[in-house]
């Protein structure tokens, strides 16, 4: 059995990391830009979010075909259970967040852009629904900071304290020359 995740799993993982950082930065930093530039920050945010959704679904499908490589030395059942719970939270978060965002944008009833392309929208706006979706989207986005932080902290804890291969399994392999 292999000791690392497959190449596609590693690539998707790190690409999702970059896209999540891009989506969060677009929203956090748009307030520093002149108002005329804010639509561009929104386009980046939405485009990153849609990309995250597609990649997380792809990652889930790849994960069904390629199970996780074993951790050595083997962690306790409790730590394995917590890891599964953490991964479930990440999958749910980064599928639900973009879906809420897409539903919100669609129900605004006006034109919007992703990847430089006009996207479909509802014929009539439903601002009550949009406000509710926005509240959930922002709540989950805030929760995302903590979930991602715990995920990264757990990987580092495994690497430096437990001295197992948890972190190394997701690192790209060095090519031999």
UniProtKB/TrEMBL annotation:
Cofactors that this protein relies on: heme b
Key word Flavoprotein present: no
Main location per the UniProt record: membrane
Keyword Oxidoreductase: no
Membrane-spanning segments: 12-33, 39-62, 82-106, 139-162
GO biological process, one term: respiratory electron transport chain
Top-level lineage group: Bacteria
Keywords attached to this entry: Cell membrane, Electron transport, Heme, Iron, Membrane, Metal-binding, Transmembrane, Transmembrane helix, Transport
GO MF annotation terms: electron transfer activity; heme binding; metal ion binding
Domain Cytochrome b561 bacterial/Ni-hydrogenase: 5-172
Cellular component annotations (GO), alphabetically ordered: plasma membrane
InterPro entries hit by this protein: Cyt_b561_bac/Ni-Hgenase, Cytochrome_b561_oxidase, Di-haem_cyt_TM
Compartments it resides in: Cell membrane
Membrane topology annotation: Multi-pass membrane protein
NCBIfam families assigned: PRK11513.1
Assigned protein family: Belongs to the cytochrome b561 family.
Record-given protein name: Cytochrome B
Source organism: Kosakonia cowanii JCM 10956 = DSM 18146
């Amino acid at each position: 059995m292999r000791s690392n995740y497959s190449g596609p799993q590693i690539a998707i993982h790190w690409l999702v990391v970059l896209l999540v950082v891009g989506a969060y930065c677009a929203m956090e930093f748009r307030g520093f830009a002149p108002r005329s530039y804010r639509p561009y920050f929104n386009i980046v945010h939405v485009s990153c979010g849609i990309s995250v959704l597609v990649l997380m679904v792809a990652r889930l499908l790849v994960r069904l075909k390629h199970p996780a490589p074993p951790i050595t030395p083997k962690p306790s059942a409790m730590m394995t259970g917590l890891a599964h719970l953490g991964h479930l939270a990440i999958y749910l978060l980064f599928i639900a967040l973009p879906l809420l965002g897409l539903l919100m944008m669609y129900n605004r009833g006006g034109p919007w852009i992703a990847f430089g392309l006009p996207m479909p929208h509802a014929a009539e706006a439903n601002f009550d629904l949009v406000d509710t979706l926005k509240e959930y989207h922002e709540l989950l986005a805030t929760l995302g900071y903590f979930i991602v932080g715990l995920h990264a902290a757990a990987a580092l804890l495994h690497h430096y304290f437990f001295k197992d291969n948890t972190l190394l399994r997701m690192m790209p392999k060095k090519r031999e020359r």
